[in-house]
Specification:
The protein is α/β, with parallel strands linked by helices and about 325 residues long. Mean pLDDT is about 90; it is low at about 1-25. About 45% of the residues lie in helices and about 20% in strands. The protein has 2 domains: about 35-125 and about 250-320, 3-Layer(aba) Sandwich (D-Maltodextrin-Binding Protein, domain 2), CATH 3.40.190; about 130-225, Periplasmic binding protein-like II (D-Maltodextrin-Binding Protein, domain 2), CATH 3.40.190.10. It has 11 helices and 11 strands. The termini are far apart. The chain has helices spanning about 1-30, 50-65, 80-85, 105-110, 140-150, 165-180, 190-200, 215, 265-280, 280-290, 300-315; strands at about 35-40, 70, 95-100, 120-130, 130-135, 155-160, 185, 205, 220-225, 250-260, 295. The protein has a 6-stranded mixed β-sheet, sandwiched between helices. Strands 7-6-8-5-9 form a 5-stranded mixed β-sheet, with helices on both faces.
């Protein structure tokens, strides 16, 4: 009789634990979110990626009614932060901002990261590359800059947001098209690169116009050319390289992702809050103030776009010289 009672108790307890485990798993997803959400930004504070992420995080926080905090994890041209998101627990409480470098770092040999390592939440914007120099530099046009670089091979230092970053690729593609020899100086993000330019430590940066706005407003910097199909709203009088006959068109982009295997119901909640944030007045104003181009894509569209970009850069990168 005692053996029978013990067996019954074990079965009952086992069933209870099994039911509780099943209930918690379901409850965790259905009640998401219940705790703080971390947004991993793979670049330093102050750059376009950081500003965009912080604005979206604030707006998502209003929708989700839990804290949504930004964590800057820099290094490796964004790979440190992207790996942190990739390797995070797929429960929705750690998501990440991903830049165009997501489509590039694997071909560059920096990390085994590709778009299919994530589940896309959505895309936010695009920003073109540009050549920016000090206001007192001895060249006022891109043609004069090119001539100076030709006359001083290997002496012109161009700052970027990290080895293998989109702004590094942009400068290298520019140099290849013009047959120039430049020296590339990497920093942990666009903001430190611009600071270096302001301090006279580099001769130019190949970041976006939106990331040099403060220097333009203070008249310490000037943009010589942009690398997009159309002129940039920040510097409408500055020509595109295509206008001048150079076949260069490179832009950065950014969006949010979650680790693979994040539950569908969690993804739906994140995507819904993200869409509202992307269309909010606060974010729209930020894009306008910073001269970034709005380019919202939902999760499925962003996933496909990132994959297309991955295939594009897999062909482009091997064709250009990225050495200093």
């Amino acid at each position: 009789m005692k053996k029978l009672m013990i067996s019954i108790c074990i079965v009952a307890i086992g069933g209870l634990l099994s039911a509780c485990g099943s209930s918690n798993s379901s409850e965790d997803s259905s009640n998401f979110p219940e705790n703080q959400i971390e947004v991993v930004v793979p670049f330093a504070a102050g750059g376009a990626s950081d500003l965009v992420s912080r604005t979206i995080a604030t707006e998502m926080e209003n929708e989700l009614d839990v804290p949504v905090v930004v964590s800057n994890k820099t290094g490796g041209s964004g790979t440190t932060g992207m790996l942190a998101t990739k390797d995070a627990k797929p429960d929705g409480y750690t998501i990440g901002y991903v830049p165009v470098e997501l489509a590039m770092v694997q071909e560059l040999g920096l990390a085994e990261i590709a778009p299919n390592d994530y589940q896309a939440i959505g895309q936010l914007m695009t920003i073109p590359a540009a050549i920016t120099v000090s206001a007192d530099a001895p060249y006022d046009t891109i043609e004069e800059f090119i001539s100076y670089a030709e006359e001083n091979p290997g002496e012109v230092k161009v700052g970027n947001s990290g080895t293998g970053s989109i702004w590094h690729i942009a400068a290298a593609a520019f140099a290849q098209e013009l047959d120039l020899e430049l020296e590339y100086i990497p920093y942990d993000g666009a903001a430190p690169a611009v600071t270096a330019l302001m301090g006279g430590h580099v001769d130019a940066v190949s970041v976006s116009p939106s990331e040099v706005v403060a220097g333009l407003d203070s008249e310490d910097l000037k943009v010589l050319a942009v690398m997009s199909e159309e002129r940039d709203a920040n510097v409408p009088d500055v020509p595109t390289l295509q206008e001048l006959g150079y076949d260069i068109n490179l832009s950065g982009w950014g969006g949010f992702v979650a680790p693979t295997d994040t539950p569908d119901e969690v993804m739906e909640t994140l995507q819904s809050a993200f869409k509202i944030a992307a269309e909010s007045e606060a974010f729209t104003n930020l894009l306008e103030e910073r001269g970034m181009n709005p380019n919202y894509k939902d999760g499925a569209e962003f996933q496909q776009f990132a994959q297309d970009q991955y295939e594009y850069f897999s062909e482009l990168i091997p064709s250009i010289d990225l050495s200093n």
